[in-house]
Known about the structure:
The structure is a homotetramer. By secondary structure, chain A is of the alpha/beta class. Chain A has two domains: about 20-140 and about 300-305, Rossmann fold, CATH 3.40.50.720; about 145-290 and about 315-350, Dihydrodipicolinate Reductase, domain 2 (2-Layer Sandwich). In chain A, about 35% of the residues lie in helices and about 25% in strands. The first copy, chain A, has helices at about 30-40, 55-60, 75-80, 95-105, 120-130, 145-155, 180-200, 285-305, 315-335, and strands at about 20-25, 45-50, 70, 85, 110, 135-140, 165-170, 205-210, 225-230, 235-245, 250-260, 260-265, 270-275, 280, 340. The first copy, chain A, has a seven-stranded mixed sheet with strand order 12-11-7-10-9-8-15, with helices on one face. In chain A, helix 5 (about 120-130) packs antiparallel against helix 9 and helix 6 crosses helix 7. Chain A is globular and about 55 Å long. The interface between A and D is medium-sized, with 34 and 34 residues. Strand 14 of chain A pairs antiparallel with strand 14 (about 280) of chain B, so a sheet runs across the interface. Chains A, B, C, D: Homotetramer. Chains A, B, C, D: Its EC number is 1.1.1.18. Chains A, B, C, D: Keywords: NAD, Oxidoreductase.
Amino acid sequence: MTSDDMTSHGRSGPAHGTLGVAVIGTGRMGADHVRRINDVISGARVAAVVDIDADRIGHLAAGIEGCTPYTDPTAAMDDPGVNAVLIASPGPAHEAALLDAFARDLPVLCEKPLTPDPASALRVLEAEQKLGHRRVQVGFMRRYDADYLTLKSLLDKGAYGRPLMLHNKHRNADTPPGFTNAMMIHDSVVHEIDVTRWLLDEEIAAVRVLRPAPTGNAPDGLSDPQLILFETAAGQVVDTELFVNCGFGYQVSCEAVCESGTARIGDDRGVFVNTAGHWGGSITPGFVERFEEAYDRQVQRWVDATRRGEVEGPSCWDGYAAAAVCEAGVRAQATGERVTVDLIERPALYER
Amino acid sequence: MTSDDMTSHGRSGPAHGTLGVAVIGTGRMGADHVRRINDVISGARVAAVVDIDADRIGHLAAGIEGCTPYTDPTAAMDDPGVNAVLIASPGPAHEAALLDAFARDLPVLCEKPLTPDPASALRVLEAEQKLGHRRVQVGFMRRYDADYLTLKSLLDKGAYGRPLMLHNKHRNADTPPGFTNAMMIHDSVVHEIDVTRWLLDEEIAAVRVLRPAPTGNAPDGLSDPQLILFETAAGQVVDTELFVNCGFGYQVSCEAVCESGTARIGDDRGVFVNTAGHWGGSITPGFVERFEEAYDRQVQRWVDATRRGEVEGPSCWDGYAAAAVCEAGVRAQATGERVTVDLIERPALYER
Amino acid sequence: MTSDDMTSHGRSGPAHGTLGVAVIGTGRMGADHVRRINDVISGARVAAVVDIDADRIGHLAAGIEGCTPYTDPTAAMDDPGVNAVLIASPGPAHEAALLDAFARDLPVLCEKPLTPDPASALRVLEAEQKLGHRRVQVGFMRRYDADYLTLKSLLDKGAYGRPLMLHNKHRNADTPPGFTNAMMIHDSVVHEIDVTRWLLDEEIAAVRVLRPAPTGNAPDGLSDPQLILFETAAGQVVDTELFVNCGFGYQVSCEAVCESGTARIGDDRGVFVNTAGHWGGSITPGFVERFEEAYDRQVQRWVDATRRGEVEGPSCWDGYAAAAVCEAGVRAQATGERVTVDLIERPALYER
Amino acid sequence: MTSDDMTSHGRSGPAHGTLGVAVIGTGRMGADHVRRINDVISGARVAAVVDIDADRIGHLAAGIEGCTPYTDPTAAMDDPGVNAVLIASPGPAHEAALLDAFARDLPVLCEKPLTPDPASALRVLEAEQKLGHRRVQVGFMRRYDADYLTLKSLLDKGAYGRPLMLHNKHRNADTPPGFTNAMMIHDSVVHEIDVTRWLLDEEIAAVRVLRPAPTGNAPDGLSDPQLILFETAAGQVVDTELFVNCGFGYQVSCEAVCESGTARIGDDRGVFVNTAGHWGGSITPGFVERFEEAYDRQVQRWVDATRRGEVEGPSCWDGYAAAAVCEAGVRAQATGERVTVDLIERPALYER
Lengths: 352, 352, 352, 352
C-alpha cells in the first residue's frame, strides 16, 4: 500500500490523510495488528514496527512499503511518518510506552491491560490528566463486537427495563502451558470485568470466586472451572462461568436479565446441519474466529476517530478500574471470601 | 373436527363404562394398539384380539384379563364384551371389516388407509351413508400431534392471514426391503395429503412429482428423494420433500407461509449439547418416537368420544379423498406431468 | 369409569386390578389429581375424596362413579374400596396423614413437601423405617419430566464426563398475593434442590443466597430475583437464578457443565414463527403447561408400581433432605452468609 | 472461483499501489460503492465518479480528495488516475461501458446484471474472448457472503455426499412501486440462479414457475409469492420460494439436501430475547443489513486481486448463463410450463 498525499501531517496530525502507525510489540497480537492495518483497515498504514527482536522486525518491515523497523520505541515515535501508536508489547512495558507517547502527544491504541496493576494504572491516569485531554483508547475489543453493541444499545434504551443480573459464560477449549489461576482473572475474566462495567454503566463493588472440584482435563493446580460473582455499586449481581479447559471450543455469551425481559448474545451460529443422527453446527474454535470482526472494527474506529482528531472508546479509567477488580478477584479466588473493590474518585477527564 | 350426536347405539353399549375394544390385526400397529389400550388409555380395555395367526393371539389374549382371541373378525364383533372395533389389519382387509362393523353399528377406529383405492373407499362411504350416521374415525394420527394441532389452530384463527403455501419435509432414515415408488405415495406422502387437506380445509386439485437424480443410498429402482407438488382448489401451492433414505433420522416438518407471517413445526428438540466441536442435539430416530403421543392421544380421543356416544376426527370422506390423491400422485410420479384429482361431490353426511 | 372386576383387592392389595385411590385434599393440586386419575391414568380410579369442605367433596364425588366423600382422612383410608392414598392437603397436615397411612400399610403418593421442616420429616422417616419397607413416593414431579429424565440418563452414563456445575433458571411470570422470601425457597427453589440432589446423586453441603437490587415489578418486601448457590458434598457448584416476577412467562432450564461437554434442557419450543419483524415463538405461560406430562407420568408410574406391589421414586429421605436444605437456604437468604446443611446419616432403608 | 494470470496490464497500472477506481453510475448502488471504497476498503480510492447528473457527481467528487467528476464514462476511463472501473449504472448501459473498458484493457467490477438479455451478454462474452484474458468480475455478491462460502466449501469437499436438492427462500418485506412479475425473475430470482449454478457447479437445464393465489398484500397484477423450480444438467432439483411482499422482513436461506445430510444457511440470528410472552429475535430488515459484509468483501477481493494483476470471481459466462435462465424463467412464469434453457458451448476462456 502506498501512502496517500498527506501534505501536512507532521506532528500536527494527519488532517484526513492516511494515518502512519507505529506498532510497538510484534508478537502474536502485534503481528496480527500489522496484518490488519496493511490489508483490512482503510485510511492507515504501518509506518514503523518496534520490537527487541531486530531480525523479526527487519523481515516484517521489508514486506511493507514505507515501513521502518526500530528496536527503540521512542525512536519510532520520533519518526516523521508516525502519527499514532499501537501498543501491543507485554503488559509490564505499557507504562513506559504510554508515558513516551504522552510526551509527544501521540494518539495511542493500547492493548489490554492498560498496565498490570492498579498502582501503575493510576500513574498513567495522572499523566494523561496532566496532558489535559484523552489520548488513549484501551483495547477492550468486545465493546466493538456487533452482538455486544446491540446488547449495549438495548440496555441503554431500557428496552426491557433496568438490568438486574448478567449471566456470562467464558469457555476456552484449553489453556497454554503455564496458565495460572491468577491468569484466569487477569487474562480471561478481565473481559467480563470490562463488559460488566460497560454494559451496566456501573462500577464493580465486590467480588467472590467459587471454585468447584476441578475437571480432570485441567493441568495440575489449575482450579477450572470457576464461578466468579460481581456485585455492582447499584446492587446488580453478575455471575461468570469461566471454564478454560472445556475441550469443545470457544464460547462467550452474556445474558442480561432485566425487569421485563432477558436478552442473550453469543449463541453459536453459522451453518445448520442434519447428519448422522444429529442436528446442529460447529462451535467456534477460538477467540480469533469469534472476535476477528471486533478487532477489525476496533482498529478502524480508532483510525477514523484519530483522523478526525478525536479519542473514543475505553479510557485509561476503564483500564485502571479493570486492574483494581482483577486485584480484588485474585484475592477473592485465594480466600473464598467476598472482597470489596476500592477505587479512587473518578477524575473529571473521565466523566461519563 | 366434527362430532355426531348418536341417539341410539347398536348394542346397549358402554354407557360411560369401560369400552371393550376388539383389535383386528395384531401386526406391528395392532400389537402396539393392544399395549396402548392396556397400559396407557383410560376408560378402555382389550376385550378381543383378532388375527389369522391363532398362536400369536392366544399368547396375546392370555396376558390380558377378560380378553378373548378370535380368528374370525365377525365372531369378535359378536362377543358381548365388545363395544367398539379398532381395525389394524392390512389395507385390503379393511373394506370387509368396516362393512361388518356397520352391520352391527359398532364404532370403528380404522388405521389408514381407509381402503387402498378410491373405488373401494367409495363403497365404504356409501355404506356409512346408508347407516345415516358416522361410525368411523380414520387413523390419520398427525391430526392429534400437539404441534400440528397448534399450527391448525393458528391457521383457523387467521393469526397471520390466509395461508398461501405449505413447505413440508418428510425424511426417514431408510426404507424396509421391497419399498417401492408407489409406496412412497401411498404410505409416506399420504400423511402430507391428509395434513394439507386438514390444515388448509381445501381439497387437493392437482399433483406434480419431480424426481431428482437419486441418492446413492436408495435401493435400485427407488427414486429418492422426490419433490411432490400439490395445488389446492383455492390455488394454494404445497411442496413436500420426501427423502426416505436420508440416513440421519426421522424428520417431519411443515411451514405454513401466510400473508403476514410464517409458522413452522417439526424442528428437532430435546437436550441441547455442546461437545467435541459441535453444538446441537439428537435427531428423532423414527416415527414411533416422534408421534407416540399423537397415537396415544388419537386413541384416547376416540375412546372418550365413543363413550360419549359421538364420532369425531378424520372421516371416511377424508379416507376417500386421500385415496384419490394417492392415485393421482402415482400417475404424476410415472408421467412427470401435472395430474388433476377428480372427487365426487361431498355427501351431506360429511359436510364441514 | 367403572371399576374393573377386582375380586380380591380388599386390604390385600389390588392384585393387578384397578387401584382405588383416596385423594386427601381437594384444593388446586388435589382437584387436578382427581381429574387426572379419572380421565388420564390407566389402571386407577378415585374411590374416595377427602376435604374439610363437605360441599365441595359432595359435588366432586357425585360426578364420579363409586367415589365416596369423607371429611375424615382415616375414615377414607378405612373405606374397603381404597387401596392407596394420594396426599394433596396443605404441608402441615402431611405428617398426620402419612402416619395414618403407615398404620394401615397403605401406599402413598405425597405431594411435596413431605413435611414443612426437617424435624417433622425425621419423625416420618423413623415411622416408615419401623414399617420396614418403603411406602411413600414424594411428589417431586420434575423427576418424571421427559427432558430431565434424558439429562439424568446422560449424566448417569457419563456421556460428557463428570458433572462439575449446574446452571438452573427458574422464572415465573408473577407471584400470588402473600408470596414471601421464605416461600421463594420452600415452594420454588425446593424443585432445584431436589433436581440437584437427584441429577448429581450427591447431597447439598452448603447454601449461599445473593440478593440483587429487586425488580420494580416485585411486591414490596420480596427480594426478586435471587441467585442461589449450592455446593455439593463432592464439591460441585450449582447456581440457580430464581426470578418469580419476570413478567414474560414460565421458564425452567438446567445446564449441566461436565468435563467434556455441556447439556441443557428447558429451552422453549413449539411453533416457530416469522412475523412483524420478529422470529421466534411463545413462552410457556405456566407450570401446568410445562409440567403437565410430568404430573401425568408421575401418577401413572406410581399407579403402575403400586399395582405391582412396589415403591419407586423420590423417598422420604429425599423429602427430609429437601426440608433440611430449605431450612439452611432461608437462613442463608437472611444472613447473606454461607450456611452449611446438616443431615443425619442416611438410614439403610434409603440406601441408593 | 478461478483466477487468471495477467501478464500485461493495459496501463502501467497500480503495481501494488492504491487502486484508482472510476465508479460509473452513482444511484443507490453506485453511491454506496463510493462510500465503501472511501471508508471501508483497503488499497483503493475513488479517482472518478461518472453520472449524467452533473450536480450530483460534482457534490460527490468535492467531498473526496483527488476525485474528478465526469458525465462521459470514456473520459473517466481515460483519466490517468484511473486504473479500474466499477460499473453501477442501469443494466441497459452496461454493454457499452464494458466494451469501452475492454478497449482500454481496464479491470471491471460490473454490478449484476452483466447485461439485461442473453444476446447482449453473448456480445460481451465475445469481446472479452477477443482480448484473450478475463477482465470482468460480475457483482453476484452472495458468493462473498460468509455463510454461502461455508456452504460452498462443505459441498465442494463432499462433506455430506452429493447434493440432491436445494431449498431456497427469498423473502422481502415489500416491493417498490412498479415492481413486475418479470422483475421478480430478473432482479430477485437471479440471485438464486447464480447461487444454484455456483453451489452445484452445474448449469440450469429447465425452469418451471408455480404461481399460488397471491397474497392480499401484493400490488395488483403481481403474482406473489411464486415457487420457482430448477432442474440442473445433472438432474438436481432446486426450489425457491420467492415472496416479496411478506411484510415481516428480509430472509434469504438455502438448504442443501445431500446424500447423507443437509446443511442450511440464512437463519436469523443476533440477540435472543425473552419478553412479553415470546422468545426469539429480530428479523433482518433488508438486504443491506443482511449482505453488507458480502458487498464489502466482494469489493475488497476485487481490489486485492486487481492489485495482484488477477481476475477472480463470477465471470461474463456467469452473467450470460444467468441472463439465459432469466429469459427462460420469464417464459415459464407466463406459460406455467417447463421451459428448457439453451446455452452456447462454454468457451475455453471460461473453463472451470
